[in-house]
């Protein structure tokens, strides 16, 4: 399996298939692939005749240079994993200079507040970087469908808003969270954790599940207090935030409304590694 490294090569490859029947799927990744990514790839393969998987660690969505430096880069292992799923996958693995040239910066977007809460509040400029690279990839690939995991649910909603605003004729498909046996949401960052902390990090999902059970009878304040207390007892895993928000607008919950859907969103630090997760509450 040979990846394509440049825009010209990608355009040439996709143009050679132009006019042939079938749809094109895109799975954008930052590499360090795991079974969560592969679940997206398998879904894309089942719904499209051709699938592009991009592997690109996007510098403009990292507001912390150390986080960018630590992010695992495992292209050969990624290619082997993708080959185990299908040898027909088109892998696009460009360099930073190929996509950004000399101007490694993000565009500025407005998403009606979707980008100002939770991750947006704690990672300034993060979603401008995400939207910039997604716009670049959607413009280059022109897929019929693009696949994103629900672990990054806020990102998923912002990408949907971006595609709508820019009138991209693409279906943004959200795919379920894939979890490790202890409930920890699969993430490329998990491999940076020690084995003992990786096992103890199962408390993230355990606490989210408890919040889900409480949601039918308790108010938001009590649930948030419960979550804070759970992590207070776990000194090696530091809670950054827990927020209950409207699924569509991501507006923080003040008073439940029966016709709305809510999710619980969480971010923690474990051994200096930032982990996020979320769960549907009703």
Description of the structure:
The chain has about 280 residues and is of the alpha/beta class. Helix 8 links the parallel strand 4 (about 145-150) and strand 5 (about 170-175). It starts with 6 loop residues before the first helix and ends with a strand. It is built from eleven helices and eight strands. The protein has helices at about 5-15, 35-45, 65-70, 75-85, 95-100, 120, 125-140, 155-165, 195-200, 205-215, 220-230; strands at about 25-30, 50-55, 90, 145-150, 170-175, 235-245, 260-270, 275-280. Helix content is about 40%, strand content about 20%. Helix 7 (about 125-140) crosses helix 8 and helix 10 (about 205-215) packs antiparallel against helix 11 (about 220-230). The radius of gyration is 19 Å and the shape is globular.
